[in-house]
DNA sequence: GCATGATTGATTTTT
DNA sequence: TCAATCATGC
């Protein structure tokens, strides 16, 4: 590395880069130049003679991993084909593909996402003749996840009855040759702990390990890297306990404490200088986060000017909020000559996204939405993926259930329950049960046989075409779509909305284009269709590459904004019961602290301007609910705020008072 | 009896 | 916006 590159780093960053041997703990506050430090550190490792393939850099999302290797590539000017920057789950996938046969799975396993797992559990309930509606399936799956990853030992919801249901659930998963996200980590750990030669093989390859976003790793993920690093001890973890926002998913920032115990000889570096935000924004963030009790004490500082005050926007309801934000954004964009990509809008929950997105579309402002429903989660795209999944694994019951009557082919509830009956009795998959029925035609009405036979033949025919298709599988899928007349099916499904149906069809075509691009990329010639599907399942929710060239406003959840920054940030829906979310208010102080960290993350995304917006009422289902501004706003001193009208300077208290008197007035008017 | 169409209800955050 | 439940038509 030439010295001019090193000289762009501050002292903490430089120490982080130069400390290449032995354990290293870096606490990197928001906006402290963390990514720059990490990329420089890896470039420096390479320059010091460490081989590409000996470095393992674990990131939080696949996208972050790709960006990181891209940046290191441009820093070093090398292709870096063997440098592994990846997520824990993708890393686990690589190991399982090679070694999972030790655990009784086939290497072509299917990965199930949350939706698939819900469907599996519903199948179990159905099989055992429970009333599905009386179960809170999401909650039960969450508890089961906590149990099986040893985060808890017991739970009031996890009665012996429920536990036995989940035993059946796991049996089904095995029958389907399917793994959920937890299984990826659990099974890799199992391999490491029960098959020493597997661990040895992986351990000897990676001599230098880095973990980014360490505050959001789970205890099991930590064990994974602990196994890899405990011998050579060249492990560098980078995190910020104040930005831990995934504890509900098993993230455990106590891992930092565990690391300190496991690696007592570690060096520690604090990056506490913030380069991102104005002094005003940083002060607000600092004032907010000191209210958390459970944290490493630290205060970020900056050389920046105060800059502009934080502006609060008050609207009547969600739609009015969208209009207000657009109005403000237009005026800032015009005044400061900023392109649309300088703006980010962050919300707490996914369902706040569509209202905003629609308003932007109406105003013809280009917007790119992350989170919420991703492209790959669109119903019709999932249908097409389900066909692929069935071709690849006929025992994938969940995918088969999805397409068995899509498009409609007269296999309804009654026919399905006949199949189910056979399946449950013989402990086989749906596909095998259908085959069984077709071998005993005489026991069933001919109409039923006809529908099932047509489906069976269709799948068999296209499955063999699919595998004969070589690298032209996308063509086979295209002809499948024509054969099953998916287009006219969509037109029937959305009567009177021809454009909507065609739009949906076009997203299938887009998917096919993406898939065909993958097939024809020489880089993937070694990868087979199984790997494509496995990777796809891990990347479903991630933002696909935006078309270059066009400036877009970014619209996303606060969670997916982690690691990003914008010149101007709008926080929308900053109301009590949204942030902090009502579920967390009911829970406990710890949950509330996580909400506060989330709000902290949101605030610290802003460089120059921060707008905080709330509405007086919000639509819940079909009617409106009166709301009040987030309690977190009271933790930030009023002199950092101003209001767009600026007719009068109000403190937050006065503002709240005015709000409630207005609400009372409106109520009396309605009465 | 069975598939399909219409209505209703409810939604934290994601690898 | 999506899925589960209830009503309708073949």
Textual characterization of the structure:
The protein starts with a helix and ends with a helix. It is built from 27 helices and 17 strands. It is 51% helix and 12% strand. It binds a DNA duplex (15 and 10 nucleotides) through residues 60-62, 87-90, 113-114, 132-133, 181-182, 184-185, 245-246, 248-249, 348-351, 354, 371, 373, 379, 405, 408, 410-415, 447, 537-542, 557-560, 578, 581-584, 594, 598, 620-622.
Name the overall outline. globular
- How many separate helices? 27
Helix content: 40-55%
Described by strand count, sense and barrel closure, the largest sheet is:
7 strands, parallel
- The main sheet orders its strands as 11-12-10-13-14-9-17
Task: Write down how many β-strands occur, each being a DSSP E stretch of 2 or more residues.
Answer: 17
Low-confidence stretches: 646-651
Output mean pLDDT: 88
Distance between the termini: 73 Å
What keywords describe this structure?
671 residues; alpha/beta; 7-stranded parallel β-sheet; 6-stranded parallel β-sheet; 27 helices; 17 strands; DNA-binding
Task: Note the topology.
Elements: H1 3-6, H2 11-18, E1 24-28, H3 34-47, E2 55-59, H4 62-76, E3 84-87, H5 88-99, E4 110-112, H6 114-127, H7 137-148, H8 160-176, E5 178-180, H9 181-194, H10 196-205, E6 208-211, H11 219-229, E7 235-239, H12 255-262, E8 267-271, H13 279-289, E9 310-315, H14 318-336, E10 343-347, H15 353-362, E11 367-369, H16 379-392, H17 397-403, H18 413-426, H19 430-439, H20 446-468, H21 473-483, H22 486-493, H23 498-520, H24 529-539, E12 553-557, E13 566-571, H25 582-587, H26 589-603, E14 606-615, E15 617-620, E16 623-626, E17 641-642, H27 652-670
Helix pairs in contact: 2-3, 3-4, 5-9, 6-8, 9-10, 9-11, 13-26, 14-15, 16-17, 16-20, 18-19, 19-20, 20-21, 21-23, 22-23
The protein binds a DNA duplex (15 and 10 nucleotides) through α5, α9, α18, α24 and α25.
């Amino acid at each position: 590395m030439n010295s001019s590159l090193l000289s762009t780093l501050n002292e903490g960053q430089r120490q982080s880069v130069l400390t290449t041997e032995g354990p290293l703990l870096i606490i990197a506050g928001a906006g402290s130049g963390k990514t720059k430090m990490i990329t420089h550190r890896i470039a420096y490792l390479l320059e010091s003679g460490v081989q590409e393939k000996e470095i393992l850099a674990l990131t939080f999302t696949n996208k972050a991993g790709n960006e990181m290797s891209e940046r290191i590539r441009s820093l070093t000017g090398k292709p870096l084909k063997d440098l592994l920057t990846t997520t824990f789950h993708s890393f686990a996938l690589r190991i399982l593909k090679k070694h999972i046969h030790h655990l009784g799975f086939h290497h072509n396993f299917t990965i199930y996402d949350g939706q698939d797992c819900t469907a599996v559990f519903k199948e179990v309930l159905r099989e055992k003749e429970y009333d599905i509606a009386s179960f809170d399936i999401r909650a039960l799956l969450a508890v089961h996840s906590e149990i099986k990853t040893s985060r808890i030992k017991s739970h009031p919801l996890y009665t012996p009855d429920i536990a036995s249901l989940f035993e059946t659930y796991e049996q089904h998963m095995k029958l389907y040759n399917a793994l959920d996200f937890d299984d990826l980590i659990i099974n890799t750990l199992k391999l490491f702990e029960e098959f020493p030669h597997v661990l040895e093989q992986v351990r000897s390859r990676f001599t230098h390990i880095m973990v980014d976003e360490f505050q959001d790793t789970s205890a099991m993920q930590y064990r994974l890297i602990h196994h890899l690093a405990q011998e050579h001890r060249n492990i560098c973890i980078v995190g910020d306990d104040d930005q831990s926002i995934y504890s509900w998913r098993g993230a455990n920032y106590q891992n930092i404490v565990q690391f300190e115990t496991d690696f007592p000889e570690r060096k520690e570096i604090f990056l506490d200088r913030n380069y991102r935000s104005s002094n005003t924004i940083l002060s607000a963030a600092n004032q907010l986060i000191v209210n958390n009790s459970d944290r490493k004490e630290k205060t970020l500082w900056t050389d920046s000017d105060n800059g502009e005050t934080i502006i609060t926007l008050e609207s009547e309801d969600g739609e009015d909020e969208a209009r207000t934000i657009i109005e403000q954004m237009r005026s800032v964009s015009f005044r400061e000559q900023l392109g649309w990509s300088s703006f980010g809008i962050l919300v707490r929950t996914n369902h706040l996204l569509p209202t905003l997105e629609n308003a932007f579309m109406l105003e013809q402002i280009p917007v790119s939405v992350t989170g919420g429903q991703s492209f790959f989660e669109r119903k019709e795209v999932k249908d097409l993926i389900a066909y692929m999944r069935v071709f690849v694994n006929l025992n994938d019951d969940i995918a088969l259930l999805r397409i068995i009557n899509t498009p409609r082919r007269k296999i309804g509830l009654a026919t399905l329950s006949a199949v189910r009956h056979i399946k449950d009795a013989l402990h086989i998959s749906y596909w095998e049960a259908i085959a069984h029925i077709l071998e005993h035609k005489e026991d069933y009405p001919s109409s039923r046989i006809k529908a099932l036979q047509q489906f069976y033949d269709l799948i068999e025919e296209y499955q063999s075409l699919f595998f004969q298709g070589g690298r032209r599988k996308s063509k086979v899928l295209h002809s499948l779509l024509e054969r099953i007349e998916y287009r006219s099916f969509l037109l029937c499904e959305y009567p009177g909305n021809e454009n909507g149906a065609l739009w949906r069809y076009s997203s299938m075509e887009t998917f096919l284009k993406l898939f065909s691009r993958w097939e024809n990329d020489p880089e993937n010639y070694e990868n087979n269709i199984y790997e494509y599907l496995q990777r796809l399942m891990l990347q479903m929710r991630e933002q696909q590459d935006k078309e270059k060239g066009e400036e877009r406003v970014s619209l996303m959840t606060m969670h997916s904004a982690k690691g990003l920054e914008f010149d101007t940030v709008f926080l929308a829906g900053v109301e009590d019961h949204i942030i902090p979310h009502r579920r967390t208010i009911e829970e406990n102080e710890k949950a509330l602290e996580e909400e506060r960290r989330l709000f902290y993350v949101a605030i610290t995304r802003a460089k120059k301007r921060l707008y905080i917006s709330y509405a007086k009422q919000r639509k819940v289902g079909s009617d409106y609910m009166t709301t009040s501004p987030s309690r977190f706003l009271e933790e930030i001193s009023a002199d950092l705020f101003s209001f767009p009208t600026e007719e009068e300077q109000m403190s937050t208290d006065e503002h709240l008072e005015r709000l409630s008197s207005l609400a009372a007035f409106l109520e009396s008017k309605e009465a």
